[in-house]
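Obj.: predict assembly geometry.
Materials: sequence records (below).
Method: joint structure prediction, all chains together.
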Amino acid sequence: MSSAISVRHLTKDFRIGIRGLKLRAVDDVSLEIPRGQVFGLLGPNGCGKSTTLKIVLGLVSATAGEISILGEPSATSSARRRTGFLPEAPYFHKFLSGRELVRYCAQLSGVADADVDAAVEDALGLAAMTEAADRTIGTYSKGMLQRIGFAQAVVHDPELVILDEPTAGVDPVGSAAIGRMIHAMREKGKTVVLCSHLLGQVEQVCDRVAIMDRGKLVLEGAVDDVLARRDRHVMTVEAMTPAARAAAEAALAAHGAKVASVTHPRRSLEDLFRELVTGSRDA
Amino acid sequence: MKASLRRMLWISRITFLEAVRQRFFAFLLVLSAAMVLSSVSFRVFDFGHGELKFIADFGFGGMFFFGSVLAVVMTAQLFFSEIDNRTALTLLAKPLSRAEFLLGKFCGAWAVLGVFVVVLAALQGTVLWAREQELLSLADPAAKLAPAFNLEGLLQLVLLQWLRLGVVISIVLAISALARTFLFAVVVGALAVVAGQLQWIAQDAFLRPTDSQLYAAFLWVSTRVIPNLQQFNLADALVLGSTGVDDGAILVVVLSGLAYLLAYLTLGSLIFRRREI
Ligand SMILES: Nc1ncnc2c1ncn2[C@@H]1O[C@H](COP(=O)(O)OP(=O)(O)OP(=O)(O)O)[C@@H](O)[C@H]1O
Ligand SMILES: [Mg+2]
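Observations (raw structure tokens):
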């Protein structure tokens, strides 16, 4: 099966100023994003993440390179029918209510007339926006804007969802909620591509990550692989005594291995919390 | 095809909603309506058909002028509000072609101007008809000369003015597709309307013999690129049908208007397709 997104030797120059000065926003990037996974695109501000995503969606044209989405050349409307997009710092027609916006997007995305109502309610439910759906978008907070943006991106049940900084400006509780929405999409077998600066959350929700710097791709791989240090090993030992430790070190030294450090493993605050607290009364 | 039409209709629907919610639209509508109604007070000149003509010129002049302002400013505004607020980013990431987006904008804006023209024409027609009845009842001999108010002519006028504004909208959209800023689009759009009003001068000049090939070429190009907007202004000829307008002449005006409208929409779509959002 073809990749969800395949980018080959993508380069993008922006012309800035009238003297034809060029800014290379994306520099020879090649990426294969497999289907059914959550893929994180990371990098500092201005490294070209959003530009890459916009090119993938055909909103900006590439200077060089080839892109395909779900096996189809990008920028065709049939490829976009199977894709949902939440732009960074989203902004919608503020005189519409949340529900009207999602309905509008469902109509534009080709949801069949008979299915529109159900699709709109599903999307609002998934984004936890059902309650606020009848308020006009002008009255929404940043977190609600991101969530209604998520709803409009998934209303046509796309196979691929592209989220550009879905958690920007959202508080930790809201970010966790968005993390759960991403997880729910993954459970449904969808591919999710997201940009984010919340590295902790990316580590939790993503299967694979790529890191860009100054327009170049500097690393790409499965989260477990890129974070594991294959040259180091951790052994967790119970009932350690000083004598046992000295003997173990000697035995290791006999094979040319060296103990670099001995520490106590740390549990995460979350694990501790879960151990102590039995669960919310509401759950 | 059906899906494409549906997407376009939705774009125009939202565009229409956005436009009629703007104060600018309400303001110009009220201003033009006030102008039409104020013409009722022009009784000082009691010179029969001259008075009706004056009322018609004044009222239709307002409709014509404010309609043009609305067509230029509102169209550019509706286009740039989507680009500047980045709502276009969300919309164009959907299976929506650039041409559908632009055509949707066109239909939305054209519908708004349709409302504008119909409301004002209805008001103007009522004023003319009422004054005509009044003049006739006075049994003033001069009033007998008054050209009869012609309802069919009024409908034709509405259609022609609406078509003229459609041509203006399509020009402004083509300019907006190219322009980087709202201000640029408005200024160039306004210049284009003025050029369109004066186009007949170039057309006249073109018919006169000239020595300069370059000048002749310039005239030829400008008379083809710029539509003659003046030809839609048959207001008093139609509504106070004394002279009467030949149906064939109207048909020619309508066809040439439609041709310009389609040409500019096509051009706009081609330009917009290359635009980076
Ligand atoms: N339309 C444009 N014209 C000129 N330069 C642009 C344009 N869009 C982006 N750039 C430049 O391209 C570079 C990459 O921008 P991009 O928005 O892709 O960054 P990013 O990785 O998404 O950053 P952030 O994390 O801040 O969102 C930046 O230097 C930016 O200034
Ligand atoms: Mg960005």
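Conclusions so far: Chain A has a mean pLDDT of 89.
To do: check interface contacts against the pulldown list.
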